[in-house]
Structures are given as C-alpha cells and as structure tokens.
TrEMBL record:
This is Mechanosensitive ion channel protein. Residues 204-245 form the Mechanosensitive ion channel transmembrane helices 2/3 domain. Residues 322-404 form the Mechanosensitive ion channel MscS C-terminal domain. GO terms for molecular function: mechanosensitive monoatomic ion channel activity.
Amino acid sequence: MRPTSLDHIMQEAWRKLLIPDTGYEISDLWQVLLVLLVLLLSAKFVPRTQKGEDKVYNVGLWFREQRSFIVFWVAVLVLHVGFELLTPLETSVFQLFNYLGAAWFLIGFVTSFIKNRFWAESWAAVFYLLTAYSILALAGPAVEFLDELRFGVGTFSISAWQVLAGLFTILFALWMSLAIARLVERQVQRVPRMSGSLKVLISKVARILILVVAGMMALNAMGIDLSALTVMGGAIGLGLGFGLQKVVSNFISGIILLMDNSIKPGDVIEIEGTYGWINNLRARYASIITRDGTEHLIPNEDLITQKVTNWSFTDNLVRQRIPIGVSYGADPHQCIEIVLEAARSIDRILKEPAPACLLTGFGDSSVDLELRIWIADPANGVANVKSAALLAVWDAFKANGIEIPFPQRDLHIRSSHVDFVKREEPDPE
C-alpha cells in the first residue's frame, strides 16, 4: 500500500471523528464525550473504599474497591444497548468500551480468587494481552492507518504502528522480566544453606540478565536491526564510561563485595565513625542502620577503598577494653576482684570467655586497671555495655569504700620571703 502524506491522513481522521459519513452513524467524538461524562459522574457520586481499612483481599473487597468503575461500565453498557434498540445509529465507540469493560471485569473477577499475587498478576497480564490482540484484530482499519503513518531518517523508516507495538512489547517485557526476577529472588531467598551475600549476588545478576534479554527482544519486535546499533552502542558506552565512572565503580565494587563475602546483610560494621548493621546491599550502595535508627547509604566504592571494621566478620564475639583508675591507698588485689564481680553481674557480658582485669600501670594520680570483657551481640550496641559495666564498678567501689581518684596538684611554698616589684608608671607628660 502506498504511504499517504501526514497532512492528508490527519485531515481525514479529524473529519471522520467530527462528522459522520452517513446519517445513521453518531460521531465518534460525541461518543467519547459521553463516555467521559459517565466516567466523571461515576467517580464523583460513587464512594470509594478508604485506604486505612483493615481488610483481607477477596472477591467482596474487589467489588468494593472497583465499584465506581463497575458503575461506569454498566452505564456505558446501558447507553450502548439503548442506542442500539431505540435508534439506527452506529455506536462503534460504545461497543469498544463495552468490550474493554467486559474484559476488565472478567479478568479482575477471576484473578480475585487467586491468593498468590504473582500468579494473579501473571494471569491478568496474559488475559490483557489476548484482549489487546483481539481488539486490534477487530480494528483492521486502525492498524492500516497507523501503518501508513511512517517516519524516516535516511534509509531508516518506521511506522507509527511499529512504534506502538514496540512500546507495548517493551512495557510487557519489562513487566514480565521484573516479575520473573522477583520470583527468582524469592526462590533464592528460600535456600537455607546459601550465604546472604551469595543470595544477593544471584538475585542481582539474574535481574540484570533478564532485563537485558527483555530489552533486546523488545527492540527486535519493533523491527530494529540490532547489528545497526553496534557503532552507536559503542559510542554511547564510551560516553557513559566517562560520565558514569563513579556509578560503574560503585556497581563493580558491589559485585566484588558480594563475591568475596567480606560484608553481608546483618554484619555489624564501622566506617568513618558510622557504626551500625548492614540492612541491605544494593547495586550502588549499602544501607547501614545505626543504633539511633538513622539509615546511612554508603557507596560500595568506600567499602572497598576505605578502612572498614567488621565486628562480626568471623563471629559475633567482640572484646572491649575499659580503663579504670583507683587511688594509691586502695588494695589493687581487692579492687581487681571487685571489678570482676561487677562485670559478672551484667547479663550481656559473656561468662566464657571470662572477663579479665589487669593492672596496666601506675599513673600520676591513680593505679591504672583495665577491664576486658566479651559480648556476643554487637548489633545491640557496644557503648551501652561499657556504660553498664562502669556503673556497676562505681556502685561496687562506693559500697566497699574505694576511692576513684581525679588529677590533683599540690603547691609547696619553699620560702616565706616574696619580693614585690612595683612597675614605675611612665610620666604622662
């Protein structure tokens, strides 16, 4: 078929939209306006389900949530039947909306019985796809019209129908690929003997591969020769390599972190003064939640290039060193026993390895002791255990009359003769 000019096609379409070809056909534009009016009225006067309701997804809930659209479809159906029975007018737009409404109602009603969300969405997508192809099969003239509307640059030419079909294919392929990626991720998370970092790595690689394959299939469905995009893809890749250097670096760093298993979700780490546990590992960053509930997004590159303290890399055991000072008048042997007894009274301090207290030196004002304790739950905080241990030691020292010294300076005056030198004031004149 020979392509028609764009101006001619648009003029014919506008004429047919506004003016009927025969006296027995109501204008498509007026049918569309009537449908929009019914839609506005149904949305205005039919109440909607409140979002805050505590509810379980079932058929009754689906009817309550979609009642405004059901009223809209029934109203359009009544208009269609009324025009068909009372007038000899053609109502193609009403027929199309009723066809779509019937398909939507059947799909929503049937899928409301499916409890699994993934399978419900999958069946709905298949049914919508079949409905779209059925409508297009009935709308042969519309397809021919869109196929005649072509755009081209040089030897490359593409029709409006190819663009619409390609966009539909891209959206459907992306939706299916994301659904499959979520399904793969859920199945991987259920494997009990697989480490957390390996689960994240498999999920991310599977998602990327599925999206790439879906994109290539969509471009192929649009009739675009992938070999013709080789040179352009190389140029775009070179530009992205310079412009997105940090993004690519973070992405590669994330893959390295997942492969070497240096950090994984649930680990307690410290980097640049930020202390917390890893909540999630993403392609570009790691999510770290601190004890006060603040969530920090640390770029993956920083976790590779900077010093990171992983408190739970091999195991969750963490040792703390707590300095304590006692006065020179106290017995250090008694003080060590009191400190150990106070440490054993703290629930989070492990009995094995047992706490230890050592005499580490003689300071200017105190005899220096050091309490060494072990904990197995650093995710619950480290500073709070130190605070609890110091409070227990304070109470034990007070109960036993042991003084905790503080820096003092004694001033000794060796001579009682003090010369005062009076500075001579300068003559103001």
